[in-house]
Sequence to fold (397 residues):
Amino acid sequence: MKAIGEFTKGIIKENPVFIMALGLCPALAVSTSVENAIGMGAAATFVLLGSNLIISLIKNFIPAKIRIPCFILVIASFVTIVDMTMHAYLPPLHKSLGIFIPLIVVNCLILSRAEAFASKNGVGLSILDALGMGIGFTLALVIIATFREILGSGTFLNMQILPQSYKPMIVAILPPGAFFTIGLLMGLFNQLKKKNN
Amino acid sequence: MQISNLFFIIISAIFINNFVLVRFLGLCPYIGVSKKLDSALGMGMAVIFVMTMASVFTWLINHFFLSPVTGIFNYDLTFLRTITFILSIAVLVQFVEMVIRKSAPELYKALGIYLPLITTNCAVLGVSILNITENYNFIEALLNGMASGVGFTLVLLLMAGMRERLDRAKVPKAFKGMPIAFILAGTMALAFLGFSGLKF
Fold:
């Protein structure tokens, strides 16, 4: 029962982007299209899974004082794996995510899960936590990107869904659109949370 | 030619490609530390300092060790960029913290709690990687680091000034705190979009 809770909490109740406001930089920067959002979400989930797994395995060998540099090293290794794999097999996606692939290293979501969860819990729970948080992060990115892509280019996953006569709201895919979208969505989430309580 | 190029890098880093509002780097401190003007100023100064130092160090590391052309190993080590950069930034921040604590206790008191946070500020790693991908030379990298820090501090201070007033504004309950801060950042980003017409 507890295991299911650890898995599902990251998806809605403790959603990393909308509720905990972690990993905001990539969430805003790459959410110009749903395709990018899924790519970023998958990359971050993989890194999260790997770092939570390794850190929960070696947590007893890391001296408490230098644990943060150790966590960052583990995370950086997985980010390098993702970076090189994506560069080799998905070059267009690698190009459009650009600098935000290496920047997964400093994504506060991943470090905070390592510090707050994986360094205190066993392997099984850490993997579930990573999966839940990764899915929650991906979901948040996809939600933001859905609004921005539909409004900003009239498409969803590169398929035209609004009529050709629709004039795209360019501002939605420009930086201000990202800030407005996440502000409104966070407000919406707060409202929903209050209703549920 | 050279001078105008440097000038362009500075203007571009501060206004046209502002780190926070256009590139989306360093959002966590931008939203987190912009509630009070004094703390925003402390954070901003610390970021300018660390970003400049980090630009210098990571550029040197890349030039002398990682690059296959100019590096001493004559071997393409660029795949180690992410790891070496984040490690050197962490070491640098730790070092700066110790130096400031010894030599300027007053400054340390002001910056103290912000310094460790800077390691995970994506703006610092971001500017280091951008310097390399943009093929900047040493002087350009140094100026870009400093100017990006100035741009970050500028919008952080503007935001803090506005949020101090926002405390007294009537905001719908669900939008209190972070959501309204993002809406505010959105309007600021709209304003900064105007600078994109400033192409040389």
Notes: Chain A has one domain: 2-146.
